[in-house]
Amino acid sequence: MEKENCQQTLSQMPKALASVLNSVLTSTSSLPNCETGPNQNDRAITIGKPPSAIVLNGLRDIAREASTGTEVKDENLLALLRQHFGSRLVTRQKTQEIYDGDGGYDWRISGYEIDLDGLDNQEMPFFDALEFFNKPAKPEAIAGCFAKMRTALLRRNETEQDIEILIDTMVDLCRPYPLDVILSVTRQWLKEKKFFPIPKEFIALCEEKILLRRALLKTFEECRNPLMASKREAKQIKADPRLGIHFKALEKKDWLPCHFEAWIAEAEKMADMYASNGNNTKADEWKAEGEQRRATWQS
Fold first, then answer.
1. C-alpha span between 58 and 62 (Å, rounded)
2. Contact assessment for residue 248 and residue 274, using Cβ atoms and an 8 Å cutoff
3. For position 185, what pLDDT does the model report?
């Protein structure tokens, strides 16, 4: 009897399996096609995760030092990026062989190739930080560096007028470089050289120090998702109707250098506005507010 029941059960299994398989195929075919659906371009693909507090604090520390003229070290910046992105971020050095150098054959880094698999909306603070690290110095700060070298270094038979023209040329050519890069090259030149630099010599040293930052910013900019970036701007930025400038609507604990910079600039512009209208009391109040905000950022 048991044998007959077992045989009967075995004979029914193929039909049961076919029924289950048909049910699975039917339910699967009713699902939307994720690859060819009409809304494929509108789907938000999560690539990464928000940066940790440790990484954000590290970026802020580097930015504070850069704003005071301390050079941004490539190895420190890369360490923070790799701490977050891991194997998603790949950097390769491009080298150039030199045969006519002072010591004969040599090589130098001529650039970087950066690979990143994408930049999610919640990873955009890294793009903000790289923009800040690549921000050009103000012309008056550049002129101050060359004025210092003009006083401390020897000159090659140039007249005072020649030096004035040379400094103006140098300031114009150095506009694309951040302040920490120009200050670092200035200190290096004062330590190692005795003559005032010519443009080619000074620019070459600036280029060496900016190569990685520039390559990182270019890659991160290319990896931004345009749809996510527009949503981010709409959500996080609001306009100040008094000044017509933009501020990021974030909690202050999440601010990056660019946010503090806009916050400080607001107070400075308000002070200038009241001063131009003859309201010195309000101008002094906003000036004090600006100094307080700058102290908050540097603390």
1. 6
2. no
3. 94
Q: What is the pLDDT of residue 254?
A: 55
Residue 240 binned pLDDT confidence (cut-offs 50, 70, 90): very low
Distance CA 90, CA 88 (A): 7
Owner of token pair 């190692």: 192
Tell me the C-alpha distance between 138 and 118, whole Å: 32
The pLDDT of residue 134 is above 60: yes
Q: Check if the beta carbon of residue 186 is closer than 8 Å to that of residue 145.
A: yes
pTM: 0.59
Rounded Cα–Cα distance for residues 113 and 18 (Å): 54
Question: Do residues 261 and 138 lie in contact, with contact meaning Cβ atoms separated by under 8 Å?
Answer: no
164-174 pLDDT, tens digit each: 888 888 898 89
Q: What is the mean pLDDT of residues 181-201?
A: 91
Give the Cα-Cα-Cα angle 91, 94, 98 (nearest 5 degrees): 155
CB atoms within 10 A of CB 116: 20
- DSSP code per residue over the chain: -HHHHHHHHHHHHHHHHHHHHHHHHHHHHTS--TTT-TTGGGPPPP---PPPHHHHHHHHHHHHHHHTTPPPPHHHHHHHHHHHHGGGEEEEEEEEEEEEETTEEEEEEEEEEEEES-B-GGGHHHHHHHHHHTPPPPHHHHHHHHHHHHHHSB-SS--HHHHHHHHHHHHHHTTTS-HHHHHHHHHHHHHH-SBPPPHHHHHHHHHHHHHHHHHHHHHHHHHB-HHHHHHHHHHHEEEETTTTEEEE---GGG--HHHHHHHHHHHHHHHHHHHHTT-HHHHHHHHHHHHHHHHHHH-
Residue with tokens 């990021």: 248
Contact yes or no for 177/136 (Cβ under 8 A): yes
